[in-house]
Amino acid sequence: MTSIGTGYDLTNSVFSPDGRNFQVEYAVKAVENGGTSIGIRCKDGVVLAVEKVITSKLLKPGANKRIATIDRHMGVVSSGLVPDGRHFVSRARDEAASWRQVYKTPITTKDLASRMGGYLQAYTLYSSVRPFGITAIVAGWDSEVELPVDGEVGSGPSIGSGGKVEGKKFGGPALYMIEPSGLYWGYYGAATGKGRQSAKAELEKLDLASGNLSLQDGVKEAAKIIYIAHADNKDKEFELEMTWISNLDGPTKGRHEEVPKDILEEAERLAKKELEGDEDEEETKEEDKPADGDKMEE
Amino acid sequence: MNHLPQAWGRPRDDYYGAYDASYFQSNGPNQHTQQPIVTGTSVVALKFKDGVVIAADNLASYGSLARFTDVKRLRTFADTSVVGFGGDVSDMQYLDRLLNSLDTEEAYTSSGHTLNARNLHIYLSKVLYKRRSDFNPLWNQVLVAGLDEEKKPFLASADLLGTTFSAPSLATGFGAHLAQPLLRKVAPDEEAAATLSKEQALEAVKESMKVLFYRDARSMDKYSIAVVTKEGIDLKENEKLENQSWAFADQIRGYGTQVN
Amino acid sequence: MAAMFSQNPLMNGPNYSFNQAPVTAAGNKEHAFNPYTDNGGSTLAISGSDFAILAGDTRSTSGYNINTRYSPKVFKIGGTTSTQDDATLVLSVVGFAADGEALKERLDAIVKMYRYQHGKPMSVKACAQRLSTILYGKRFFPYYVHAILGGLDEEGRGAIYSYDPVGSYEREQCRAAGAAASLIMPFLDNQVNFKNQYIPGSGVGHELQEREKIPLPRNEVEDLVKDAFDSAVERHIEVGDGLQMLIITKDGIEEKYLPLKKD
């Protein structure tokens, strides 16, 4: 790093002469050391998964959740400094609740990502604060049917002026990743943290852009990717934590929930099996899977 | 000469006469709700063997005007409980949103624990009691129907004063006079309610709704009805009253056209 | 006139075309909202030499309507479990039920805190004073209830304390409160404190001797309570449905429930 000794990295909000903000870049370093988090946008839902590195044998297995619920239809996972992630969650919940207060309707994932992007960006502007040491992945299912306004009592006119528009499309799955700079994009598949490189490579193989992957398969893929990404971090033990949001007809009815234990265990079993198989028949696997190009664009 | 802010936008006294100061109440007492405005009438509910049936019509009245005819007064909570609202509709909407945010906050902790009907009833009654104690009441009487912590049928009432009570059958407003006697005949006590089938309970509640439609001038024949059991909530919001007969009408004596 | 002494030129001096000091509507607005109601019912408490009984009917009313036939008015206070099995005190409240419930919950929380902080249950005497303080604390927006607190005193004797809505209290042998208080209390005066009972043939005028006062045994007191309520039910429309009795002895608190007429 050329930043050392120049003095341009000593305070937040200051540019270096070549146009970089070193404090933000250091925050990204904090993220790169965190356990891997991923999100997969499937056709009928979204999955979030995180590699929870076990820092002490004295911690209760399954406790200390890393994926949080923002609103009923939305969840977030982050890599990096866990307390920063907690504050992110707290702010996101406030944003979602205040949106409801004003608009009497749930916040869309896009709007929440925008609000939180703006919030993180503000932490790059002042010398009195430091940037967030996290990259957050926000997943949501914006209702595919026209939702009643919160507290709505009637159904409004069915035809004519102010009536319903036939065949109007609403909502669907959404996945956003927000970085310490405040930068956020929408993704088909998102990965951050220590194992992001291999995770991204795996995500790219899934051809998510075509919108064929089902949520049930997405859960299995997510488990597998976390296990693969953990290969970079093999000396440490980890726990897999996964949540999902399905469409209204699906298992979670549009709500953000933990993946049920039996499904999670089955996904883990498959992930482990595949990894063991990997080591034996590395070559055959490469041929089976179509290594598609970059499918990450919005 | 109207350069002082107090004068802006106000008619001149010499031209229009003295300004009616009662419209200018910047330093008057704070006005809290003194009366309900748009109102819903009765809610009726009855426990049975495996759950609770609850019903309310879809009318919101503005005084004696039948103002809104598709107002859904049964609100579900966490797929386990139904709250039936009588009284002010805007206060009902406020409470509905409050319950919505409560449900969202419950989801923050992924404990898998959900609030049951008893928890919900206590919460609502504390909100209502706090507001009456602030002299700023929420003008409602609500019935909470669902299952308690032992998955047994639960039915209780709370009102704008914070008064609470529970019984095998309950009815608010006009229903307390007209429907409650009919329901008590079917289920005089908890033991009797625990032997009722869902069909018997539904029939009794529907019959009550019919009687209320005949006799309550602020009621209508379109209503919502919900059945809460372990299996979940079966909510229908567009039921029509059926098999009405006005044959009794010409038998009525003592008022109207047949004075004697 | 007050205006003569006003230093405000707006009020006195050359004026504009209107009175510039904002004027409020005359008089205060009446609040149409009445925060109280009466939920009827009656309570009764009698203390004995080694026990105390608190009883109440279980009917809840609004006007001529019966809200429910089972709404207890007598509560165990200060136990450490949800069932209040280890409670030593009993509170009865009658009047405005929502205030009664709020009062009960407050006292219960306070007595629990006392127990946890001091490692022993609160005495009736201490609790009685505390309850008075709670009630008086809302002197200008009172809990609209007649409360009765019962327990065993330091000597193990039955203790009954009765209150007015703003905290005035005294220890008594017996007390009836609520809708049928005026029906039950004279009966109690006669049957518990033997008022107007004299020894036959003991004389006339000042020579007349009062019947000797003796503490009643528990079974007789229980019968008195039942009779008092059966009679009250006959004559008062707000009393009926069920009779709940809590009997405090050194062995704990026993609960009895008996049906009353439902008409």
What does this structure look like?
Chain C: One of its GO terms (biological process) is proteolysis involved in protein catabolic process. The complex is a heterotrimer of chains A (298), B (260) and C (263). Chain A is 33% helix and 20% strand. Chain A has helices at residues 22-32, 82-103, 109-122, 196-204, 215-229, 261-280, 282-288, and strands at 37-42, 45-53, 68-71, 74-80, 134-142, 172-178, 184-186, 189-192, 238-246, 256-258. Chain A has a five-stranded antiparallel β-sheet. Chain A has a five-stranded antiparallel β-sheet with strand order 3-4-5-6-7. With 260 residues, chain B is α+β, with helices and mostly antiparallel strands. Chain B has one domain: Glutamine Phosphoribosylpyrophosphate, subunit 1, domain 1 (4-Layer Sandwich). Chain B is 29% helix and 28% strand. Chain B contains six helices and 13 strands. Chain B has helices spanning 13-16, 89-108, 117-133, 174-186, 190-193, 198-215, and strands spanning 38-40, 43-47, 51-57, 60-62, 65-68, 74-77, 81-88, 140-147, 153-159, 164-166, 169-171, 222-229, 232-240. In chain B, strands 1, 4, 5, 6, 7, 8, 9 and 10 form an eight-stranded antiparallel β-sheet that branches. With 263 residues, chain C is of the alpha+beta class. Chain C has a single domain (42-260), classed as Aminohydrolase, N-terminal nucleophile (Ntn) domain (Glutamine Phosphoribosylpyrophosphate, subunit 1, domain 1). Chain C contains six helices and twelve strands. Chain C has helices at 2-5, 9-12, 97-118, 124-137, 181-191, 218-235, and strands spanning 42-47, 52-57, 60-62, 65-68, 74-77, 89-95, 145-152, 158-163, 169-172, 174-178, 242-249, 252-259. In chain C, strands 10-1-2-11-12 form a five-stranded antiparallel β-sheet. In chain C, a hairpin with a 2-residue loop joins strand 11 and strand 12. Chain C is globular and about 55 Å long.
